[in-house]
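Recap from last week: sequence in, structure out.
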Amino acid sequence: MLPKKRRTCSMNFRGNAITLAILAPLAISTALLAIPAPKASPTPVLHSVRMVQQSIPMPDGVHLSATLYMPGDAKPGERFPALLEYLPYRKDDAMAARDYPIHSWFAARGYVSVRVDIRGFGTSEGAPTDREYSEQEQLDGEQVIAWLATQPWSTGKVGMFGISWGGFNSIQFAMRRPPALKAILAVDATEQLFHDDIHYIDGMMHFDEFELNMDLAPAMSGAPDYTLDEKILGPRFESAPWSLLYLRHQRDGQFWRAPVRPLSEIRTPCFLIGGLLDGYRDSIPRMFEQVKAPLKAIIGPWNHTFPNDADPGPQIEWRDQALRWWDYWLKDRNTGIMEEPPLAIYMQDWHAPDPHLKNVPGKWRGEIGWPPRNAINTTLYLYDAHVLSTEPAKPAVHELRYVPSAGVEAGFWWGELLTDPRPIDAFSLTYDSAPVKMDLTILGRPHALLEVSASAPQADWFARLSDVAPDGTVTQVTGAGLNGAQRDSASDPKDLVPNQTYSLDIEMHLATWTFLKDHRIRLAVSNALWPMIWPTPYAMTTTLQLGGNTGSRLTLPLVPPSMYATPQFAPPELSEQRSDMQDAGFPLPGDWKTERDEVNRKAKVTWTGKSEETYPWGKETDFEGITYLADDNHPESSSVQAEAEIVMALKQQTLIWQGHLTLTSDAQNFYYKYTRQLFKDGEPLKQKTWQETIRRDHQ
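Predicted structure tokens:
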């Protein structure tokens, strides 16, 4: 059933484009809802910047390491608001070159911008926390915020910001509402840890380089000496790998929900930045629907990155928008930012599939909230002839044989620039509309409402929306998956009854797209999306039931032209870089290679990534490699082999940390083995292995 806020109507592909019933509500004059032009913020007086290393005490005696980027020419007694970024990623080496252009930019404009390593990471004291977003991390963070608010240079007002982890915990602290926290800015972040985060994408098991990196990184001591003192190194090296912990929690529940509170509890103003190629983008519509505090959001055509360094572009400057936000909430200046439409989103025009696309064609659109005003949900029904039509179909049943190794072309997560997905379409049930008679634009989350069954007790379903150009080229627009065992509850999964029909609502991830005249709309349905999702363990055939008003169907959120002024953004500013450090990180998504043995029906995907950083005290080289294996004859026996290595070439010694993971499965269990090693000048210094058999829990 569609949410009450949604409206439905029909779209006529066989006649003259769209019926008058649709055109009428879309044809509202844009002049009726014109908005004032954005106020220009006064040009700030730029300060010099000085960096101060600071130790922040916790109640249990542990000290957290902080770098304060401060206005260097402050007058005696002058006070500034504080901006906090709070991460496990090491601020004094791995992230130093990245941190400086961001934090110094805000410091030069009258803020104390603060970068803190969480407990047990980098140069902060203590043992590493046992998971992401632990209670200890959050309690420490509240102490940090209180400390920042009471410093002699502070106005008492604190903002919090960050991308990915820093965005996640910014949202979490807005939920906790520490008194001094007055506003946040979260980039590429979500509050749904089980469904959205990369451990269980759409509630289904996933493994990638982040987990490989975070299994090894806690074992390191801090820069620049990387001490081998057992009192410091020992607790870090002995800390259990997080991938093992997450494998023990294969369903939603208290473990995943503990770090977060309801969005409705947020009272802190939130500025959200997301990307249409980022896996966490769905949190922004949810926050517009549920958060009562003031909101501002920008959603561009980007992957998991800051907008001024985005690939693909178009790139925009975001720090100037952040400055207007901080000035409004932390300095009580009317910068005009709250007088503009709260949401700016990039509307993607059609483009051919191209993993190397530099700029996504399209234009910016303003909206006053969510769902978009005058959006109309249009229903297309799946037909026996594998077409989509606005009229309900006659009853029919389509069968699909499960191919566990299908899915490489659909991407690493629900984003990215992809190749043509026709190779996976060949192992899917596909349904195409007739060529559309006029341009059609979607903005929102399409739904695949499917009537399904499976011959096995466990199955996943994946729905992908694509654009088929007149020459046959296919561009994937969006998609999503659903674990059939979680059809009613992600926290209480239940086996399927073989051959029983179930109704599934697969809500696809946020998308914008214009289907051009003469293009076709395609829905593809499959039961595998490997290696993004770990294959289910049983050979099977699944079915789609078609026919009638409740048969399998697709809903698309169509929108008319915007009724608001087009948002305007400045191009990226040149950023000051640290002259003493250089960072040559590998570009995501790294290097992929696919190999298939069609005779024996086996497949292998290998991924590698490498980065280098140069510091005054030495050079760091990081390498990660993952090999995924799938066997179509034995879907239960999938595996991952993964290696990570961090080489720290110092003047006096070379230290090498290595992590080795083997993860395999059969129909009943996962078999986990992880070994962590430390070498000094080529000689083994420390080693620890974790090995465990974990029962499959509907994954």
